[in-house]
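hey team, just a heads up i'm posting the complex here instead of the shared drive bc the drive is being weird again. everything in one block, sequence lines first with there labels, then the predicted structure for the whole assembly after. its two chains so it's a bit long, scroll down
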Amino acid sequence: MNIVALVDCNSFYASCETIFKPDLSKKPIVVLSNNDGCVIARSSEAKKLGIKMGVPFFEIKQIIKKYPVHVFSSNYSLYGNISSRVMGVLKEYCDRLEVYSIDEAFLILNKYSERSFVSRAEGIKKIIRKWIGIPVSIGIANNKTLSKVANHLAKKDELGSQVVEIINQKQIEISLKVLGVGDIWGIGARIEKFLQKNSIYTAYDLYKTDPRWVRQHLGVVGERTYRELHGEICIPIVERSEPKKQCRVSRSFESYVTSFHDLEKRIISYATRASEKIRSDGLQAKKITTFIRSNKFNNNNKQYHAARTFDFISPSNDLFETIKFAIKALKSIYRPEIKYKKAGVLLSDLTPEGEYNRDLFFHQSEESILKKIRVNKVFDNLNNRYGSGTICVAKENYEKFYITRRQNLSPAYTSNFDDLPNVN
Amino acid sequence: MNKNIQVKTDKDNNLESVPYVLSKISAGFPSPADDYIENNLSLSELLIKNHLSTFLMRASGDSMVDSGINDGDILVVDRSLEAKSRDIVIAIFEGSLTVKRLVIKTDGSAILKAENPLYKNILISEYAELEIWGVVTSAIHQFIK
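-- predicted structure starts here --
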């Protein structure tokens, strides 16, 4: 029998910000989303000040006035670099690894070791702390769902080792009693409400529920979660090593957007960004999707979401073609009476550049293809050298929509020679 | 044989890729040098033993000038190494990062020694209390940028 360990970085973005700023460790830190809209990460000291996850920045301005809270815009180049180092260490210390998100991974630990799982986990934790400067907590159990439960407890053990193992039934039952049913991995807000209506409040309540009732009311997915709580293994570890298959650029708007013209400007900028990204990775896309949606959290407005996908005539990463199809898709799904809250562009079925699939009706001379490639190169070079948005496709209002507001951005410590941390 | 070009990439973390080209094989004889081509020299392989734990920093000021670290040099810092006495280290002193030579005394105290007579040494009464951020393994000094 193998064991699953869930390794989760503590307040990951906030921790990244302290690596080169040791004076900030143990201080309240918050990190804001794109556009500095809301709080997406908090150090534990910031949590103690009552700053909640996801609150709009303006709502915590009072707290910030009163206490010395350090505010950062999200610095994804830094977080991505630190994340890949953490995952690199984990890879060396386990048999199999599923990178679940930027700051979490499931590890499979085999039992063929002299050392206990807990002591191995403590070793991993120590290495990541020393090598990279990131604190992690680790939950150990028989399956993924229970490893999440264990991790939940590990997180709370701030003064202790932050490594928790729940393997035997007694450990499992005690842990489930102190966990809200909505905190179980795989139980979303909607199901949580439904369960509470049926007097199921803690994870333990669900654990004790009749399996037939669970199957009937929560479906296959709920049943899987239920069986994992009972120690079965239903959700496999997925190692993802294949190159990325899609590239998505989307944003939630700071306020509602209704006019086609406004939406179009935004879609152009997302299509621009997406095609830039895949060009820089040497990829081209077979399909392009534009999607738009209303605010799903506001039921007073009319709800609407739609997506439209087109196939490129031949796989492409050409800026103008990407924009052309993105707008074509937008035109086919746009409805004027909706208040839109989010939109995005997705390039999918990515393949390496250079594979052309010449349609018989699609006669493009070699010369015109080469010319397109040159135009894209010039575009990318200018934006690389002088900053994103230096050159853009007309209609797009970069200042307002493209350049995200990032007033408190820390330097690109790990990705730009001009931004290396200074030491005296 | 169509494969004239091979690209070697750094599997660990793609920090860098080093392309090298084997001579084109058409009809006739292959280049006699082909058997001897192994690799390009990689500076990052030379300077960075552990990609996961190594960070680059920029030296600022002249407090370490006698050790060969000049203002503006790039420092290669490996956090996985255990600091020994006489190592050049990045230490955390009063909340900020500083580069100094570490001298550990037998009585358990330590000195963060500047390598420039114009600067004062920092005396640490308990070495155990001192937090070492990483060990400096090289300084890179560029004459032309």
